[in-house]
């Protein structure tokens, strides 16, 4: 891990306004807003895979979109190699777009149905002037090889491919501009398990070959655990826990991470539990409670959690959690030494 | 656990076949499916999209419409549901056999309050009067764990969260105390902590109401956490069947083995997953012989020519593979 992070996110917030109803105007109440991101900070190092995991509505997709500047944050800053990306203009911005690429969840919606695969790739290659015009066809073949699609795929339209193949086209398009960072938002959640595994294997191999930095956003804990070096667990627009993959999954230091882990279905029919991992449901993001966002569902909740929001603090080297119970999930020191 | 067979209890499916006449030819969605569900038993039906697991469930329930065509036998309480007149089937559907669906937002009527949709079922199948129906509706809401039931009964589905909608749908299904619950991917659209709640609710209800449950899912983890027995489907056929413990311990069909290997597990971080190459075949254009052979690493000539029959391997274990011994002997993947 190099010392200078390739991306650093510093106190980023993002709100989405909801239409200001007449009733609220008359009552003199302020307009409502969805707090999609709430003071999120973390760093991404070159060559690593950072997994961002959370349930729907936790803000993980908003975060992904902010990272590639499809959305501009309301507060805080995102720095790419030390430069605030919101200050980039014209040529610099295009250069940034080239180096940080996003792959979307929906392989049906993110490819133009009227363009052939070679047109899709050609567009990416020529907009960013990646190759002289005469070298483009050869580069397209190279890209298809890279994602293991047959060469005749170039002249076909997206509807002629299966979901897994379409996702490969999405990957090829992102790789066409030779990016440093790939942000993958729910890359495989629309795919069948066996095809999921193919795409995950492809991603692992490409990362190795091309020294990519990968930000892998997903709701599937098993997938995130499998692919990530480090993991950030999000809940209601905040990072609840961030740390090395083994650390977070072996001994989660936040009750929410533990609940998420307990709820994830494991492939072992001999270890069954009838205890519900987390009661209740996600509170409305329009009305985030003042204390810890997880307080309403947490089995370990106490008075302080309801009034004071816990800050993300260090629990172990490179491992932080936002919980008032600082010792939650900590191994007894003797045990920790043994491990 | 096949105590129900022959005694008139439980569900017995024999040779269930569902064809769809499509412009591209006959699609064989479900082919020759045999399935037994004993009383109080939870059976999982697992497979990828297009494997025929949902169509099997719908065929059992008699929900297949033209251009679909169902043949075979679905025996329930000594009666054959496939051959039964529509009117008689209506009396069983929703009372003795109930079904819950993947997407509660489309399965529920968006313009009717949840309470009214619950009562519809009671009006159709019971002789309760309005006051008794209201009381039963409240009781059901409590059973499935919807708080503030009194108020919630008057609300519309869009006012419910995804998890609460699924609970409401389960409440409607349970209205007449069914003996068999058919659950079609009931948790696929939900978050994991909510999925966990709903699955544990289903297990509790199964115990309390002594229901049989057929659970269709694509997630092997869900099967591992809930079911007693399981059947794996591929291209419309059951390819492996057995108790969940047995199948997970030693898969005997290469497809089951591949599925298990495709799911990321703890303790193998950033390793290659043992994926299955290729994609499932189209149902109008199934390969000759074993439908799985183009994707199978165990395949030999016989697999390309002949379809392996679903053979019995002792109590409660069936597999449709010529090479099941080799598959069983292969290196463990779990």
From TrEMBL, chain A:
Database matches in CDD domains: ABC_NikE_OppD_transporters
Any one annotated GO CC term: plasma membrane
Keyword Transport among record annotations: yes
Short name of any one Pfam family annotated for the protein: ABC_tran
Localization, UniProt: Cell inner membrane
Biological processes annotated in GO: peptide transport; transmembrane transport
Top-level taxonomic group: Bacteria
PANTHER family assigned to the protein according to its UniProt record, in alphabetical order: D,D-DIPEPTIDE TRANSPORT ATP-BINDING PROTEIN DDPF-RELATED, TRANSPORT ATP-BINDING PROTEIN
Identification of the protein by name: Oligopeptide/dipeptide ABC transporter ATP-binding protein
Organism: Phyllobacterium trifolii
TrEMBL record, chain B:
Gene Ontology BP annotations: peptide transport; transmembrane transport
Protein's UniProt keywords contain Nucleotide-binding: yes
NCBIfam families xrefs: oligo_HPY
GO CC field: plasma membrane
Listed PROSITE patterns: ABC_TRANSPORTER_1, ABC_TRANSPORTER_2
Membrane topology summary: Peripheral membrane protein
Domain ABC transporter, first and last residues per copy: 11-260
Family, per entry: Belongs to the ABC transporter superfamily.
One family name in Pfam for this protein: oligo_HPY
GO molecular function: ATP binding; ATP hydrolysis activity
Localization: Cell inner membrane
Keyword annotations of the record: ATP-binding, Cell inner membrane, Cell membrane, Membrane, Nucleotide-binding, Translocase, Transport
Protein name: Peptide/nickel transport system ATP-binding protein/oligopeptide transport system ATP-binding protein
């Amino acid at each position: 891990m190099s010392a200078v992070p390739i991306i650093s996110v510093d106190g980023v917030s993002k709100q989405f306004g909801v239409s200001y109803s007449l009733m609220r105007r008359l009552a003199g109440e302020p307009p409502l807003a969805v707090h999609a991101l709430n003071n999120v900070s973390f760093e991404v190092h070159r060559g690593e895979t950072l997994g961002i995991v959370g349930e729907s509505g936790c803000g993980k997709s908003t975060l992904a979109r902010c990272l590639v500047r499809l959305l501009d944050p309301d507060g805080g800053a995102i720095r790419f190699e030390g430069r605030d990306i919101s200050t980039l203009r014209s040529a610099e911005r295009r250069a940034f777009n080239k180096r940080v690429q996003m792959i979307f969840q929906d392989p049906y919606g993110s490819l133009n149905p009227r363009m052939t695969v070679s047109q899709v790739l050609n567009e990416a290659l020529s907009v960013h002037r990646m190759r002289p015009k005469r070298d483009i066809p050869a580069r397209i073949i190279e890209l298809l090889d890279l994602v293991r699609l047959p060469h005749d795929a170039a002249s076909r339209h997206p509807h002629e491919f299966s979901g897994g193949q379409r996702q490969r086209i999405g990957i090829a398009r992102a790789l066409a501009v030779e990016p440093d960072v790939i942000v993958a938002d729910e890359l495989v959640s629309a795919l069948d398990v066996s095809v999921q595994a193919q795409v995950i294997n492809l991603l692992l191999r490409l990362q190795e070959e091309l020294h990519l930095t990968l930000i892998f956003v997903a709701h599937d804990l098993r997938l995130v655990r499998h692919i990530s070096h480090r993991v950030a667990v999000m809940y209601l627009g905040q990072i609840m826990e961030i740390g090395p993959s083994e650390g977070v999954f072996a001994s989660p230091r936040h009750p929410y991470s533990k609940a998420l882990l307990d709820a994830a279905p494991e492939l072992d029919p001999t270890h069954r539990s009838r205890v519900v991992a987390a009661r209740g449901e996600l509170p409305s993001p329009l009305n985030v409670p003042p204390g810890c966002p997880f307080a309403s569902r947490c089995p370990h909740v106490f008075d302080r959690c309801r009034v004071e929001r816990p800050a993300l603090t260090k629990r172990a080297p490179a491992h932080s959690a936002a919980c008032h119970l600082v010792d939650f999930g900590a191994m007894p020191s003797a045990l920790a030494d043994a491990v | 656990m096949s105590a129900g067979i022959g005694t008139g209890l439980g569900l017995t499916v024999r040779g269930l076949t569902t064809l769809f006449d499509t412009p591209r030819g006959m699609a064989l969605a479900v082919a020759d499916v045999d399935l037994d569900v004993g009383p109080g038993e939870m059976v999982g039906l697992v497979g990828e999209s297009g494997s025929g697991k949902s169509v099997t469930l719908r065929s059992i329930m008699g929900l297949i419409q033209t251009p679909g065509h169902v043949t075979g036998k679905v025996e329930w309480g000594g009666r054959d549901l496939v051959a039964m007149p529509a009117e008689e089937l209506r009396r069983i559907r929703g009372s003795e056999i109930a079904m819950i669906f993947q997407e509660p937002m489309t399965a529920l009527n968006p313009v009717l309050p949840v309470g009214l949709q619950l009562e519809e079922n009671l009006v159709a199948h019971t002789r309760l009067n309005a006051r008794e129906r209201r009381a039963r509706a409240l009781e059901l809401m409590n059973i499935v764990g919807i708080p503030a039931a009194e108020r919630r009964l008057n609300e519309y589905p869009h006012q419910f969260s995804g998890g609460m909608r699924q609970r409401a749908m389960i409440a409607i299904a349970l209205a007449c105390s069914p003996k068999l619950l058919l659950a079609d991917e009931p948790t696929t659209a939900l978050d994991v902590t909510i999925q966990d709640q709903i699955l544990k609710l289903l297990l509790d209800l199964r115990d309390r109401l002594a229901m049989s449950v057929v659970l269709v899912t694509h997630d092997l983890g869900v099967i591992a956490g809930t079911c007693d027995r399981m059947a794996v489907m591929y291209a419309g056929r059951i390819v492996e069947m057995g108790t969940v413990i047995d199948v997970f311990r030693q898969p005997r069909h290469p497809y089951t083995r591949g599925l298990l290997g495709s799911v990321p597990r703890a303790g193998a971080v950033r390793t290659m997953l043992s994926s299955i190459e290729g994609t499932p075949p189209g149902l109008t254009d199934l390969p000759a012989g074993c439908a799985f052979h183009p994707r199978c690493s165990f395949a030999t000539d016989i697999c390309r020519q002949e379809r392996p029959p679903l053979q019995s391997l002792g109590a409660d274990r069936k597999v449709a593979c010529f090479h099941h011994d080799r598959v069983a002997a292969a290196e463990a993947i779990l």
